[in-house]
Design goal:
The structure holds two protein chains of two kinds. Chain A is built from six helices and five strands, in the order E-H-E-H-H-H-E-H-E-H-E. By secondary structure, chain A is an alpha/beta fold. A four-stranded mixed beta sheet of chain B has the order 1-2-4-3, with helices on one face. Classes of the chains: A alpha/beta, B alpha+beta. At the A-B interface, helix 1 of A face helix 1 and helix 2 of B.
């Protein structure tokens, strides 16, 4: 039985998403079985970059307008500076030949990392499955996450 | 040290050298030796750690002018 790693990804900022995927890819490269549970703002990481998000109700529509998400749109948790900081960080990372978040998502998937979407957050925030990338393996709640996490030696909340 | 294959990770940061090593080692046969070239000094600690997790054999590291040659023997 391979060792398990579970990550509860709550944050929707680029830097935290990169850290989460860095750990996920490192663990998958080390022969571990990795599950990432995306909840609340973390769902922004696995939203499609394109297309509008259809949701019911004026408050959900407003939320999804202001909180569009998608790996290309995530802000930095510090020094975002209306996008200038993010642009500079992106440049530093490209110069260092670091993979982009989208490349890391694709690599994680290729290595067998499992993506789980939190249905409670999706329901409350009005995020449909169509708004999320097709790489999501399952849509579930806290019980499914815990059933994986209790078997995992490494469990992180990011 | 003699190697059966070489993997160039110069200029790459964590986790890419490890990710590439895992992939490359899949292509090799048990007992073959992979040479990894890297310049992120984290590799000095990371490769032995990775080998202990995956059960592959860490053979050693050669350092020259900020570049590292790391040798890993595929065990299974």
């Amino acid at each position: 039985m391979p060792e398990k790693v579970t990550l509860a990804v709550f944050s929707g900022e680029l830097d935290k998403a990169l850290a989460a995927f860095n750990i996920a890819i490192g663990a998958a490269s080390s022969g571990m079985e990795v599950s990432m549970f995306f909840t609340f703002w973390g769902l922004n990481i696995i939203k499609k970059n394109r297309g509008s998000i259809k949701s019911r109700g004026i408050m959900r529509k407003m939320l999804n307008f202001m909180n569009r998400g998608g790996p290309k749109r995530l802000p930095l948790s510090r020094f975002h500076m209306f996008g200038l900081g993010k642009w500079m960080m992106g440049k530093l990372m490209r110069d260092a030949k670091s993979p982009s978040l989208e490349e890391m998502i694709a690599l994680a998937k290729e290595m067998g990392v499992k993506f789980m979407g939190c249905t409670t957050s999706m329901g409350i925030m009005g995020i449909t499955r169509e708004a999320l990338i097709p790489e999501v393996d399952s849509y579930c709640g806290v019980a499914t996450y815990l059933s994986e996490a209790r078997e995992a030696k490494v469990n992180l909340f990011i | 040290m003699k190697a059966d294959a070489t993997l160039d990770c110069i200029g790459l940061y964590c986790p890419m050298p490890i990710a590439h090593t895992a992939k490359k080692l899949n292509e090799l046969e048990a007992g073959q030796v992979l040479e990894v070239l890297a310049d992120d000094e984290g590799i000095k600690e990371d490769m032995p750690a990775w080998c202990s997790m995956t059960g592959n054999e860490f053979l050693g590291i050669e350092e020259e002018a900020g570049e590292y040659k790391v040798y890993v023997k595929k065990s299974k």
